[in-house]
Fold this protein.
Amino acid sequence: MILARAERDDAAGLSSASAKAVRDRGLTKEECEAMFDGGYAFLYVTDGGRTVGMCACRAEGTMFQIAAVHIDAELRDGLWRSAVEEMMAYGRSRGDRIAYTNVDVSDSETLARYAGMGFRETSRRQRDAGGLPVTEAELTRVI
């Protein structure tokens, strides 16, 4: 696995519809980055020369946002944790002390992955996702 870091100043949140479009349509790195709007770093996961994932994160001072972690399903078990660890190392290098992310509470697999890395739920909020209410858990941990 190779994790390549690419930064972009004009690159905020990736909706689940956009994430699905990334996976289903095989968008380019540039097309993925265009879905963001400010100060994000992008990490690309490659395996055997093929890009198998895209992650987005942002250092915010003392807080560090993990905005998106998308890894091909067949490789997710082996690469997901490494990608999140690499993003947290990036946040630490920028002076951030707390990592956070928002996860749909119905996504038990992702909630369990973050819990296994020491993330704890600190709050919940409801948001509108294309006319459907979605409840998200904010997860945090010291990095």
